[in-house]
Amino acid sequence: MKNFKKQFPLLEQYTYLDTAASGLLPEAVLEFRQDHDLDFFIGGSLFRENRGKLFLKVRKAVGDLFHCAPNLVALTPNFSYGFNLLMEGIDRSKKVLLLRKDYPSVNWAVESRGFKVCYAEIDENLEQNIAEAVEKHKPDIFAFSLVQYINGIKIDPDFLLKLKEQYPELLLFADGTQYCGTEKFNFEASALDVLGASAYKWLNAGYGNAFFLFKEHLQEKIAPKGLELKDLQGKNKPHKGSFIGKFEPGHLDTLNFGSLKAAIDLIEQIGIDKIESRVRELSAPAKEKLAERGLLESAVVNRKLHSSIFNIKGDEKLFQKLRSNKIICSMRGEGIRVSFTYFNTEEDLEKLLKTLI
Fold first, then answer.
1. Prediction pTM value
2. Are 204 and 26 in contact (CB under 8 A)?
3. Which residue of 127, 202, 275, 285 sits 20 to 30 Å from the alpha carbon of 266, by its own alpha carbon?
4. CATH number (domain holding residue 89)
């Protein structure tokens, strides 16, 4: 993995523990973007004539990485845009289960539209809380983040499979922004009906690109209201007028979605298996050592399954101390959020622990 650190020059000067806020832009993506803009600068509309082929490659790359048919992959500028379009296509009489204090882009999109809403609490008994809420409230939809953005609590995918088996009509809509790119994921074999994610965090694809994956049967259950603009040449969207096309009105940006393709190419070069293994090698001792120092909330300490995101107890003074020691992290919730990805090292963890003393 150390060979790939050269993709991120900032790591030569800083200890970067802030992927949960923003992934770094890899050199490979930068090179694509430079070549793209030069080609656009020289070619103008001639360059844009091939945009349809690029978008097909992007959908295929996303589909291959997450095991979803390319024709069921929608490209959107960010998660919030796509999720709002999704919820606009849902009958307002439906009841939606949310996680209390989940990511605002998930909860606001539901709460602001007048759906019947019920909640489950995010704590060490997360899965039990969800099961009890489903049994009690009988929701039609469960919308949630796979990994919580404040403290990194991660929902058990095996639990979701059991939940879907018990309640096959319950639709599961997931935000994977804090998850996608951290480990292998097979969407087709999962319990999820919809998975959306912005790609600027763990996929290191820069801003302005996101994707949504759909199970085939969703086309019969929701009616997205996005107005797809007519493509006069018919080359840009072979799925023009389709379910997926409703999530892609107007022109797609070749720079941003080409960046997503370049970022996925880098992940494929490294190997998602190696990325997953490396993230676990760092997150396990990080949790153990931070817990030993009493810096983690009990809801995190008492769970077996966790992500590589941690919220440590600390105030603005400690945050500034970390920053002065060139450790980049974020103030979130009532503490300081740190996160580890594959380009981090054991030395990064040790530096964090020493600075916290």
1. 0.93
2. yes
3. 285
4. 3.40.640.10
